[in-house]
């Protein structure tokens, strides 16, 4: 009766665990019951079996820790649809949860340890020698400083290689720069252990540096993810139950309402159309197939309806960093030397009105083609308008507008004009609770 968990939470407090065997219609449920005046755990198993042209629903139950079990009378159905209907009704009776409303696939994806290891392997990080959660803030801060110096020496080396100066003098300076880079590289790899396969040659090309930049950003996202609990916790509680609690989120699956004439069905279809309209024209319209739409709400979320200039914007990130975002929220990198790491308009959290642009940051090659996009309510306040000529990793908007500036608007080549209100419409058509929040209504292209 053991198997992966299907649901961390159900609609009744008596249901402790729901396990799904991996087959489409087989489930094991554990329920707290009173027996002989003592609290006992009752185990209930239910599955659909095929009998040629007929189907039957088989049930069995017993008490946790006891070998004996009771097998119920099979319910024979003339068709698979009839058997599935009975299965879903019994599942709801036991858990007060609709079978189609389960969120197990989403949870398995964001807590997939194999994806984490695969992504770290791609960048050569030796996670067996030093697990990511054992890296300290001091180590990451010092590593970011080393990368900053590494970048500066690479720029100087590239400059010397293109200069038409005295050849002998340039060669001498280039040797000095290469020596500095080598020392920085060795110091960095001592702090951030890498796998050694054969003879390691870390050249002086910019690609080697950018690889380490991406690795450091990835590590920062993974560290925010709740780590594995001790064995003593797992003896009392299922792993995904514990992880779900750590998220502190209310997660509701809207996908099951897509074909129904309900408020949730209308919300799902409005969000789906918003996504389709948010695909940049340079991408095919079927770039990604939408597998599910979920509504997320922090349990202690603050009501921000009093904040001006709120908009719905897209944010893309790797699947393995989503759990950290759900548990801690979107956070600005807190290492001062991380700001130079490819940030176009300085240190901050980046959003866009273009869904296809956000997917470029999802790292689908490392997650079996899966991508998770956030559609976020963002309080922008007073915006500083910028374009490509203002792009600078060391960009500091506060120096331009002082404390009046709350966010930076990066103007794209095409799309909604920042000074035309008709390009943005009230999001109440998605859900009445979004009244007052604006969402793009025309061709996207502005990057925030």
UniProtKB/TrEMBL annotation:
EC numbers for this chain: 2.4.2.-
Reactions catalysed, as given in the entry: NAD(+) + (ADP-D-ribosyl)n-acceptor = nicotinamide + (ADP-D-ribosyl)n+1-acceptor + H(+)
GO molecular function annotation: NAD+ poly-ADP-ribosyltransferase activity; NAD+-protein mono-ADP-ribosyltransferase activity; nucleotidyltransferase activity
Compartment annotation: Nucleus
Residue ranges constituting the PARP alpha-helical domain according to the UniProt record: 96-230
GO CC annotation terms, alphabetical: nucleolus
Keyword field: Coiled coil, Glycosyltransferase, NAD, Nucleotidyltransferase, Nucleus, Transferase
One GO BP annotation of this record: double-strand break repair
Signal peptide range in chain numbering: none
InterPro entries: ARTD/PARP, Poly(ADP-ribose)pol_cat_dom, Poly(ADP-ribose)pol_reg_dom, Poly(ADP-ribose)pol_reg_dom_sf, WGR_dom_sf
PROSITE patterns for this protein: PARP_ALPHA_HD, PARP_CATALYTIC
Transmembrane intervals: none
Coiled coil: 151-187
Principal EC category: transferase
Superkingdom of the source species: Eukaryota
Domain named PARP catalytic: residues: 238-448
The name this protein goes by in its record: Poly [ADP-ribose] polymerase
Organism field: Metarhizium anisopliae BRIP 53293
